[in-house]
Amino acid sequence: MRYLESKKARIEIIPMIDIMLFLLVFFVMVTLKMIPSSGHLTKLPTSSSAVSIPPPKILVEIQADGNLLVESHVMTPAQFTLLLRQRDSSKTAITIAGNQTATLQQIMNVIDAAKAGGATEIGLAARNPAGS
After folding, report:
1. Strand runs labelled E in 26-85
2. Which of helix, strand or coil describes residue 121?
3. Of 106, 114, 103, 95, which Cα lies nearest the Cα of 38?
4. 76 vs 110: CA distance, rounded Å
5. Residues 40-79: tens digit of each pLDDT
6. Does residue 66 sit in helix, strand or coil?
7. Are 100 and 61 in contact (CB under 8 A)?
8. Do residues 83 and 117 make contact, with C-beta atoms less than 8 angstroms apart?
9. 24 three-class SS
């Protein structure tokens, strides 16, 4: 009557490992989504006085044609102003990443659009030529 004997309880760890790997993948995906870069390659201008700043809440990339890339959406400076007016942009940190071909006028258009939208914290992205 072996089938009537009680078996000892065992702890199965395979489902626990599956859950832990799922959580690991979930947190990696969430962390990657929090990175402000949209994955576009931009050749930032260099500056010997460039310093690290906290990650921006809004990263604005200036494209070669003068349009802006904001949160993976292409828009004009006027549309960017409307976007900022819809949000509470007084405490929003905005970083402008213009490529090496961006003109000073294009950068000033973005700064004017950000100020018209109510933003007060505006930074310019640059590379440090020392490699940091």
Report:
1. 58-62, 68-70, 73-75
2. strand
3. 95
4. 9
5. 455 666 666 666 666 667 888 888 787 888 888 899 888 9
6. coil
7. no
8. yes
9. helix
The rounded distance, in Å, linking the Cα atoms of 4 and 8 is 13
CA 100 to chain centre: 20
- 3-state SS assignment for residue 56: coil
Burial readout 53-62 (b: 16 or more C-beta within 10 A, e: otherwise)? eeebebbbbb
Token pair listed for 129 = 């030529």
Give the strand pairing for 68-70 and 73-75: antiparallel
Which letter does DSSP use for residue 38 in this model? -
pLDDT at 23 over 90: yes
Question: Tokens 């993976």 — which residue?
Answer: 72
Nearest to 121 by CA among 96, 85, 97, 87: 96
Six token digits for residue 83 = 């976007």
Rounded to the nearest 5°, which phi and psi values hold at 117? -80, -10
Q: How many CA atoms lie within 13 A of 47 on its CB side?
A: 10
Helix (H) or strand (E) holding 123: strand 121-124
Q: Are 97 and 62 in contact (CB under 8 A)?
A: yes
